[in-house]
Amino acid sequence: ETGVTQTPRHLVMGMTNKKSLKCEQHLGHNAMYWYKQSAKKPLELMFVYNFKEQTENNSVPSRFSPECPNSSHLFLHLHTLQPEDSALYLCASSQDLVSGANVLTFGAGSRLTVL
Amino acid sequence: RKEVEQDPGPFNVPEGATVAFNCTYSNSASQSFFWYRQDCRKEPKLLMSVYSSGNEDGRFTAQLNRASQYISLLIRDSKLSDSATYLCVVRGGGFKTIFGAGTRLFVKA
Question: I need a labelling partner for A67 at 20 to 30 A (CA). Which of A42, B57, B71, B75 fits?
């Protein structure tokens, strides 16, 4: 496995379901991110973790709950979602939060549909 | 005003054409600038960083104008494979990385 891997790639869930998105990076990076990409909108930053510690919650509703057990793994737990939460959820990682270049490497994304 | 603004396009150009995209940003304290490329239903991938002195990578040239707060991307000799959405990315202090909504490019034979 290389880079950033996200599972599942596609997920359909009802509004009462509970599901989780998983992200794993094999780059030795220390920072991990969740972004949301809706049609024709810019990527929206949701959460940032640095060395397993959450450093940013960008006013995300509590029905999205992140978890970062270690620097290589990041989860997004989903419960009682709304249809407008349907989007592509992208995980990304970077070396850290302070390097000048701080290039983000993205996973392929999890496409979520909420019925 | 949006933090990062791009013309959404689409830009429809023939193979071999030269095409340029601009992007403006609102935060004068922004420190790092990038162009990412996103193919349809795929993840964004880094195309190139943008340096103050301007930089070139093959057919791609990026420029930064801090005084006017814009960056540009020039693609020469367009290929069919250049068809994608080009995302302007601006980073301020710390982790605050702002993405533009993207400019769509279609290169036609």
Answer: A42
Which positions in chain A touch B102 (Cβ < 8 Å)?
42
pLDDT digits (tens, 9 = 90+) for A33-91: 999 999 878 899 999 999 888 888 888 999 999 999 999 999 999 999 999 999 999 99
| Chain A residues touching B8 at Cβ < 8 A | 40
Q: Which residue of B has its CA nearest to A40?
A: B101
A50 touches B: beta carbon within 8 Å: yes
Judged by a CB distance cut-off of 8 A, whether residue A48 touches chain B is: yes
The torsion region of residue B3 among left (phi > 0), alpha (psi -120 to 50) and beta comes to: alpha
Three-class SS string for A15-37? CCCEEEEEEEECCCCCEEEEEEE
